[in-house]
Design goal:
7 helices, 246 residues, 7 strands, Aminoglycoside 3'-phosphotransferase, Chain: A, domain 2, mainly alpha
């Protein structure tokens, strides 16, 4: 974890959960496996938190094509496998706390006023009850379902990046998947086919969860922009200044 380490109050615990989930899923072949060459961790070295997984040869980017079923099956199979996972995972309200923790890292700039930062809190607070405290059935989730975390291999689609695994409503993963498909260029009929073949009957039930994902993404991009700008300032200060010629 690099910038995302600030999301979690205890990175070691979150990465232990990631390794636990990956070990559980290993026999299914639907997710990357913990490394067979080195203990998977977690480790902390020079301030960087990491885990080790086996290398999986894959295409650089997934092409959507017109095969909605394979994307539906990939998520359904993942959720079916995770439905029997009984290990320790964070509760869904912890996700809200993580997003709020990230928001509190924002600092006013010319582009981001204090009022904007405060409004992000108000919007997040408004979603706490209908999303993060919703009275819905829960189970183990990937937590960050997107096409960026789905690898296209010669043996099919394989899931990766489980550092945000948590226990919550299926709505969270399904909403994130629908958003990711659209961001990658899928049109509404394609997304509807994926949801239908997954077994999701009412896309409208995802509305509040999609808003929560969008807000999370908005806060993350604001934070990441500030983080990168800060790193660039530090790098410039650390660079040796050229000598002036007389």
């Amino acid at each position: 974890m690099t910038g995302t380490v600030l999301l979690h109050d205890d990175p070691n615990r979150w990465l232990e959960r990631e390794v636990s989930v990956l070990s559980f899923l290993a026999p299914s072949g639907i997710a990357v496996r913990p490394s067979p060459l080195i203990a998977p961790g977690p480790y902390q070295h020079d301030g960087l938190w990491m885990t080790f997984c086996e290398w999986v040869a894959h295409q650089s980017q997934i092409e959507l094509g017109d095969d909605a079923e394979k994307f539906a099956v990939a998520l359904r199979d993942l959720h079916d496998e995770l439905s029997t996972f009984t290990g320790d995972l964070g509760g869904f309200l912890e996700v809200w706390c993580d997003i709020e923790r990230l928001r509190r890292q924002l600092r006013p700039t010319d582009a981001v006023s204090p009022e904007i930062i405060d409004s992000l809190h108000e919007r997040l607070l408004a979603l706490r009850t209908p999303v993060f405290e919703a009275p819905l059935p829960t189970q183990a989730l990937h937590g960050d379902v997107s096409l960026s975390n789905l690898l296209s291999t010669r043996n099919g689609l394989v899931w990766s990046d489980f550092e945000d695994a948590c226990r919550g409503p299926l709505h969270w993963d399904v909403a994130g998947y629908a958003i990711s498909l659209r961001d990658r260029g899928a049109d509404s009929p394609f997304v509807a086919r994926v949801l239908d073949q997954y077994g999701w009957s009412d896309e409208r039930a995802l509305g509040a969860f999609m808003k929560a994902h969008d807000l999370y993404s908005e806060i993350w991009h604001l934070y990441d922009t500030q983080r990168r700008a800060g790193a660039e300032r530090v790098a410039r200060r650390a660079s040796p200044r050229p000598y002036a010629c007389s």
